[in-house]
Each structure stands twice: as C-alpha cells, then as structure tokens.
Design goal:
alpha/beta, Dihydrofolate Reductase, subunit A, ten-stranded mixed beta sheet, binds NADP nicotinamide-adenine-dinucleotide phosphate
Length: about 240
C-alpha cells in the first residue's frame, strides 16, 4: 500500500513557479517572512518525508561523480542504508544523474528512485554514500510501484510532493496525489510559458487530471496576504 501523497507548493497568483521572477511584496510586507511560511506549513502537514524531481534535488546533490568500474553486480532490488528515524528526502532520478556525496538532504535521509538500467558503478557510489534506493521499473517511470516500496521498506504513511512542475505532473497523471496544499504568494509572474505547479509533458489533447475532481476543505489567510488553499483529490463523479 502506497503512502498518502500531499502535493505541497507555493506559487504566484498565476500559478507560476519561478520565485526569482515574482513581483515584490507590497510596502511593509516582509518577503523573507513570506518565504518562510512554506516550511512552517510543511511542518504542519506532518509528513514522514518529501519527494522531488531530479532537477529540484540538484542543489542538494553536491557530490562528485565517482563511477569507478564496479567490482560487484547488484541485483535490482531495493537497498536500505538506514534512515535512523529520520524523515525521507526522496529524489525521482530515473537515469541516476545525481551525485550526493552524503546520505542526507537538509538532515533527511536520501532515497533515490531509479530505473533498473542504471549502472552497477552508480549503485556502488550510492551505497558508499549511505544513500538508500528503490527501483521504478526498467526505465524509472513506474512511480506507483516505487511509492509502494517506500511504504513497505520505511513504514512511511504520508509524503509531501514538493515539485517541480514536471514531477508533480507525472504524479498527477499517475493518479498518485491525494491532497493539494497550495500557498498562493501575493505576486504575479505574467509571462506565457513560465512553468506552473503542474507541467505534465504530453500530447496537446492529453488531460493529465482527467477523471479527478477537487474537493476544497480548508482556506487560511496568513500574515502578509499569503493564502493557503487545501483540496482533496477524489474520483470524478460517475467515474469510480
Ligand atoms: N515554487 C515552488 O514551490 C517550487 C518547488 C519545487 C521546484 N521549484 C522549481 O522548479 C524548477 C524545477 O522543476 P522542473 O519541473 O523543471 O523539474 P523537476 O520536476 O524537479 O524534475 C524533473 C525531472 O524529474 C525526472 N523525472 C522522473 N520521472 C519523471 C516523469 N515521469 N516525468 C517527468 N520527469 C520525471 C526527470 O529527470 P531526467 O531529466 O534525469 O530524466 C525530469 O527531468 C526549479 O527551478 C525549482 O527551483 C519550485
């Protein structure tokens, strides 16, 4: 059984993700205090860890690629290096492009979600770093299966899906999101084509959220004019 997944994001009022492009807060409103709300609210969601796409994990993965020829063959089964009671920092990295050099991101234990085609040398590097890993099928696209493994191996009940837009879109398309927790920051981007909180890369006639409906269950207005919106995702009436 997979964990409950809450997609927790902060966006401008037009749903855009590039914080560096947003308009400045109005006079007298502290931008740093506004930005700090994201982590404060995440803590209130009481997750057992967080999940991000490969690109969003990059700033946390500052190790050097070692990739020495592997002297061992590792069967493509999950490896638990030991979370030691820490929350999980889960990176969806199908090709094994991230090099950590450590076993934590912001103090949380790193778990890489990989495709089975990654090399033995890469798996040896993760093991040496103390990083855990699970597989998401041959090409790393079976994220539902990977979520099941996380529940089984780490006993996680709730995970926060924290972007970027591409990985959020993939989870949305796979029907893996149970709730949305969206902080609407009092700012505008305004430029067409800037990534938004969901960015599934599909054909023009695809509808990644087809068959689902949003049920609003809470709204809170925070200091500085940030608005916290919460929705449950349910099957669209008549489709379940
Ligand atoms: N405002 C916010 O709350 C917020 C939150 C998070 C991130 N961000 C920003 O968003 C930007 C990164 O977002 P992003 O959407 O470009 O990248 P992302 O979602 O962080 O990562 C995308 C990568 O995930 C991997 N992936 C694995 N399975 C996938 C699948 N089924 N579908 C798509 N990708 C899959 C791919 O790696 P490979 O290319 O290796 O295959 C893909 O390139 C950063 O600038 C970050 O700062 C903002």
């Amino acid at each position: 059984m997979r964990p409950k997944i809450i997609c927790h994001m902060v966006s401008s009022i037009d749903g855009r993700l590039r914080v560096d492009r947003w308009t400045a807060p109005a006079a007298g409103i502290d931008a740093a205090a506004l930005r700090g709300r994201y982590d404060e609210i995440a803590a209130r969601l009481d997750g057992d860890g967080w999940i991000v796409g490969r690109k969003t994990m990059e700033p946390f993965a500052r190790g050097q690629a070692r990739m020495a020829p592997a002297t061992a063959h590792f069967p493509r089964v999950p490896h638990v290096a030991g979370a030691g009671g820490r929350d999980l920092a889960v990176a969806i990295d199908p090709h094994g492009r991230l090099h950590y050099g450590r076993d934590d991101a912001d103090g949380d234990h790193i778990v890489a979600v990989l495709g089975e085609q990654v090399s033995d040398a890469y798996l040896a590097e993760l093991r040496a770093d103390g990083v855990s890993y699970v597989f998401a099928g041959p090409d790393g696209q079976d994220i539902a299966r990977a979520m099941d493994r996380l529940s089984e191996l780490f006993a996680v009940r709730t995970l926060l899906l924290e972007g970027g837009g591409m990985i959020n879109g993939a989870f949305l398309k796979a029907g893996l999101i149970d709730e949305i927790s969206l902080l609407v920051y009092p700012a505008i981007d305004g430029l067409a084509g800037i990534p938004s909180i969901f960015g599934y890369a599909g054909d023009t006639d695809e509808r990644p959220a087809a068959g689902r409906s949003l049920r609003h269950f809470a709204t809170e207005t925070l200091d500085g004019g940030m608005v916290w919106l919460r929705y449950r995702i349910e099957p669209e009436p008549g489709t379940d």
